[in-house]
From TrEMBL:
<keyword id="KW-0769">Symport</keyword>
<comment type="similarity">
    <text>Belongs to the major facilitator superfamily. Sugar transporter (TC 2.A.1.1) family.</text>
</comment>
<dbReference type="InterPro" id="IPR045262">
    <property type="entry name" value="STP/PLT_plant"/>
</dbReference>
<protein>
    <recommendedName>
        <fullName>Major facilitator superfamily (MFS) profile domain-containing protein</fullName>
    </recommendedName>
</protein>
<feature type="transmembrane region" description="Helical">
    <location>
        <begin position="145"/>
        <end position="163"/>
    </location>
</feature>
<feature type="transmembrane region" description="Helical">
    <location>
        <begin position="87"/>
        <end position="105"/>
    </location>
</feature>
<dbReference type="InterPro" id="IPR005828">
    <property type="entry name" value="MFS_sugar_transport-like"/>
</dbReference>
<feature type="transmembrane region" description="Helical">
    <location>
        <begin position="111"/>
        <end position="133"/>
    </location>
</feature>
<keyword id="KW-0812">Transmembrane</keyword>
<dbReference type="InterPro" id="IPR044776">
    <property type="entry name" value="PLT1-6"/>
</dbReference>
<dbReference type="GO" id="GO:0016020">
    <property type="term" value="C:membrane"/>
</dbReference>
<dbReference type="GO" id="GO:0005351">
    <property type="term" value="F:carbohydrate:proton symporter activity"/>
</dbReference>
<dbReference type="InterPro" id="IPR005829">
    <property type="entry name" value="Sugar_transporter_CS"/>
</dbReference>
<dbReference type="InterPro" id="IPR003663">
    <property type="entry name" value="Sugar/inositol_transpt"/>
</dbReference>
<feature type="transmembrane region" description="Helical">
    <location>
        <begin position="421"/>
        <end position="441"/>
    </location>
</feature>
<feature type="transmembrane region" description="Helical">
    <location>
        <begin position="314"/>
        <end position="336"/>
    </location>
</feature>
<dbReference type="InterPro" id="IPR020846">
    <property type="entry name" value="MFS_dom"/>
</dbReference>
Amino acid sequence: MVSMEDGCGENQARFNKYACACAMVASMISIIFGYDTGVMSGAMIFIKEDLKINDTQVEVLAGILNLCALLGSLAAGRTSDYIGRRYTIVLASIIFLLGAVLMGYGPSYAILMMGRCVAGIGVGFALMIAPVYSAEISSPSSRGFLTSLPELCISLGILLGYLSNYFFGKLTLKLGWRMMLGIAAIPSLALAFGIVKMPESPRWLVMQGRLGDAKKILLRVSNTKEEAEARFRDIKTAAGIDENCLEDIVKLPSKNRGEGVWKELLLRPSPSVRWILMAAIGIHFFEHATGIEAVVLYSPRIFKTAGITGKDKLLLATVGVGLTKATFILIATLFLDKFGRRRLLLTSTSGMVLALTILGFSLTMVEHSEERLVWALSLSIVATYTYVAFFSIGLGPITWVYSSEIFPLKLRAQGASIGVAVNRVMNAVVSMSFISIYKAITIGGSFFIFAGISVLAWGFFYFFLPETKGKSLEEMEVLFSKNTRPRNVGIETQQRSNV
């Protein structure tokens, strides 16, 4: 086990390697999900040819995972409050394993759909639990970096999926796509065993009244003993326990164990909780309403429309999408705790508006021209990569960081699950309707719509999302009080983080 030494330099003392290792292992489940998303974009080309399915069936196959993920995410919040964050990750891994085996077997469209549905439930669990676990393990000074690791891992998984398309696509038609989908079972099994070696979330342990165990883990994942003590006091206070309590085990009211949460979230929320819920739902809505799934899942079709021909060239151009996404999310993880969430989020959305507008224009020119326009083809490719880059440097990772850190302790798991449910619904809507929409209004027109939605997203982020950089998880409810002004919070947070 890795821990920080008291004699470390100032820069090292701000980063706990053991907490980072915990977050990295938990985030590995996101690689499996990302792989499943990325590999399907290329596998659909071969599945359509092998199983003789139509475009409507392709849309359903692509989107059904997200509808099932909706069910998984809603169940994951209550499950993680009951069995703990760590064993919820184990459960998600097992579900993924079953889904991968069914898809890899895939003798028919029905069995393939069944495997996709099972994997979707695992997706719902994974998307909720990995960021929550990472947020609850990490210190305020490194929370942005550690909580963005799941999104980075999703991007790495997508890239691996694209590479799998390229290499397994050279096998026979019947074997190639089944290998693409079935191989995900191997890392699922490895993660199920690996995660049991990691510690449980100290905040979940406090909610169970296991104060002694929580304190031991906080001493290992905090930068200093003083920070661990301060975090321990804040968590006890948030859980309704006297901060001076020295007992190792205490009995808590049942409402602190996850019961009555839905009433506090949806039926009778306080003004600050209402704002938090609106912020979480809004950022998850706009993450997919701005079109990222259309690009990630249907990039071969976009490039084919632009003028690229041949399966190898299409899959190779798609690898560039995955490489761009992974590279820029890695950059984002390094700057989240330095520049803050709001600045990157607004910059990201601005760039997306510009890139989507250019992409819509270039694809429209291609569609209305009888000749092959090399400049429009090049512009389409550049605009696609630019859009993915801007998405990945802000909106992509910040959605998960932000929504996992803003809810109060006892509302966090189930509050985050609502955000994930909205995320999956929008993902399903885009992935299951994109082909039909672009056939109705042209593919260029569909990206003009995404550009318009991105403008609305920028306005929402500017007016409703305060800066959370440098704040402890226990301070979030105060941050979202009525008197807080999002545009001014960044200044205050910057001053606090410099103290």
